[in-house]
Amino acid sequence: MSGTVTVPGYSDSNRVPGFYFNLDNSKANTASVTRRVLIVGQMVSGTGVSGVASISAGYSDAVAKYGASSQCAAMVKAYRALDTQGELWVLPLADTTAGVQASGTFTISGTATAAGTLSLYVGDQLISVGVASGDTATVVATNAVAAAGDVSGLPVTVTSAAGVVTVKAVNKGQAGNDTLLGVSLLGTAGGQSVPSGLTVVASAMTGGATNPTNLATVLASQGERVYDLIIHPYTDSGSLTAFKNWLDSTSGRWSPVAQLYGHAITAYRGTYGNATAFGLTQNDPHATIMPVSDSPSSPLIWAAQIGAQVAMSMRTNPALPVTDLALTVLPPTDAGRFIMDERNSLLYDGLSTFTVDDSGTVYIERLVTTYQTNAAGVADNSYLDIETLLTAEICMQDMRIFLASQYSRCILVSDGTKIPAGAKATTAALIGKAAASRYRWQASQFWVQNADDFAQNLVAENAGNGLVKLLLPYNFANQLRVIAGNVQFSKS
Question: In the CATH hierarchy, which fold is given to the domain comprising 103-206?
Answer without folding.
Answer: Baseplate Structural Protein Gp11; Chain: A, domain 3 (3.90.1160)
